[in-house]
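BUG: 3D viewer hangs when loading the predicted structure for this chain

Environment: internal workstation, default settings.
Expected: structure renders.
Actual: progress bar stalls at 90%.

Input used:
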Amino acid sequence: MDLNDKHWRTWTLRFLALLAADLPDQQAWLGERRLTVQTAVEETEFARSIAEGLTSRAVFTADHLHTLQAIARRTAALDATARTARWADSLADDPAWDDVRTLARGFLHTLPDDRPWPLPRRLPPNPAR
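Structure tokens produced before the viewer hung:
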């Protein structure tokens, strides 16, 4: 696997770790970030796009790609009103996130190395927000 593929595989798995985490862990990680549901929808679509390329290079399997496509379809189905809400608040209010959490966990459990994936590292607050 080349360095680019390794980078994008790691990025995708860290994002999936966030989607797969228990609700309190997700809310704690998102915490003070002002990310909207729209951000989650866009990041999920980006992960799906990355997975297509990685699948074509045999980094992920077709089953992994199908799971990411299902996650992207589920988040894309969120209505326009829900997309303006804070992502952290939406997690408990919309049952779509339970489906996403289950799908992301399924993806992570099928990896050959089967190691736990921690939540992405905390980033310092962005003063521009």
